[in-house]
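Let us begin with a simple case.
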Amino acid sequence: MALYLNKLIIITAPSGAGKTSITRHLMRHFPQLEFSVSAATRQARGTEKDGVDYHFMSTETFQQKIQQNEFVEWEMVYEGKYYGTLRSELEKIWAEDKIPVLDIDVKGAIHVQQQFPQTSLSIFIEPPSVDELKKRLQSRGTETAESLAARVNKASYELSFKDHFNKIIVNDDLQKACIEAEMIIFGFLNKR
């Protein structure tokens, strides 16, 4: 019997709160974790690779997969931009006797948690404040004034759902947040 069958870890946060940095830290520290590669309809950025960073696909292909119930969760996160978690991705990771780690948006995280209430651990990464989040997003240099405003508004909305998750980590110091996440994951892995 597979040790980790159907266990999964969901890490969610508003954009810019630090979930990707924390997720990468956890992946380096726990060999039994495997990053669940999400599907996306956006174009690859910079050095992103298909099947590594995302499963890049056309909107038509994504919508077909929705019709065929191939997603555990999916969202149109921004107008015309779909993101989702393929059921086949989770099954592939479980078949390797590993635990999928999902780095996904807040609505998607709630959907996955509802489907796996007994075997999932959900962690919400909270920014110290919406102002700090705005500064982090601005420092990336990838946002227009409009996209920045949209992300900040969405973040304020997403923060209202933080109490839906098993654990909340306030990321006001990345190193401390990573250590807190490690302790939470260690407890989850050792729970029978």
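The second case is a distinct protein. As before, the sequence precedes its structure tokens.
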Amino acid sequence: MSDPADLTLTEAADAVRKRKLSSLELLNACYANVERAGRELNATIWLDYEGACKSARRADQAVKRGARLGPLHGVPMAHKDMYYRKGKPCTGGSSIRKNFVPEVTATVLARMDAAGAYSFGGLNMAEFAANGTGHNREFGDCHNPWNLPYIAGGSSSGSGAAVAARMTYAALGSDTGGSIRLPAAACGVTGIKPTQTRVSRAGAMPFSFSFDNVGPLARTARDCARILSVIAGHDRLDPTSSSEKVPNYEAALDGKLDDFKIGIPTTYFLDNADQPVALAFEEAVRVLTRRGATVGCVSLPLMDAIHTYSGIVMGVEAGTIHAEWMRKRPQDYGQHVSSWFYASYAIPAACYLEALSRRGPILTEFAKQVFGRVDILATPTIPICLPTLAETDIDNGPADARARSFRTSANTVLFNYLGLPSVSVNCGFDPNGLPIGISFTGRPFAEANVLKVADAYQQATDWHKRRPPVLA
């Protein structure tokens, strides 16, 4: 068999189940890539190889004795370092929580444990999940495995880079303004932001009450579907989590798009897009047409309001969560984080309440005008070719670093305000050899549909199978 680290998550789980590979072999294959590329990428914050070996051996013993196996049995993973596990470090990518050890375990980790997975480390991330580029003053910036000087996306930068570099079969990220989809696009992997409330946030470091989402990054839509089937669903520890029935997302992936109507926005998402991005997007849409989808243009309502309200809600909520630390130890924040929080304290309460109260009516109108005509909205995940870490270093970089950084997330944060499910997959590469992402977004709780389109696209292309140069 070829390198076990090249297997997708579903392939790896099936190989353990069928006794073609042991869990320990999977772990060692991933760890070999951690040692090969870890120093260059800076994708990890902490590792527990010894503990993971014990978990792998237990998983292999369960297979040998014929125990009932979960859908993720024996698959080693590492996750964004913001998910609490009792007795293990959880830094949130920050100096303030550098030595924090939680006393509880996040619901999503507990559910993945019950499905047979185990974790071996915490992955690098933007400080407190507060930027879309992956800059981190305390632990160092995460680098893109396709071209090291460039951003890996954020805030789940380590998750995107580690999945692309075959250090882990999948990784949990979080998405408040694009923090799953941005690193998925930047690193050439697949990442899904579920519908708001679809997945429990209990035991996950908070950033914005109204916008935070938990979801996976992996190499394929099928991988993401399997994980989402495990972690989605109501949780009594998170009263905001939905009781909506959880379908078998993987069962929906039949590759057929004959009955699907896919909309291409006539405004906003393609405005001023870089040419390589626009061309890759257009070719991806042609692929979907050849798979049987009906494609047409769709006008998007209220985009100015959505854009404005998104910034207000996220800024105020993030600033509120960090208010006490900002009063007591502002020097422990990177300037690009603290300056954003300071600005949020000047936003009047009336503006915040207006932004919240308009959310429902705007979603209703958006759904009526868009999803009344199409099943899926296709958009470029990041409208520009990826910038370098130096070009987006707000603390030490050029004067336009903040504007350039914010432009990377211009196409993603809107769907956090609307609370819609959205998945990003790789659809090509730019002249610098860096991935380009396309996103598929659906109506609330239509994760099965967005994953179905993403999987159909991946069945017709091989972008998601390519290995980054860092592994050469």
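The mean pLDDT is 97. Residues 231 and 472 are 34 Å apart (CA to CA).
Keep these points in mind for the review questions at the end of the chapter.
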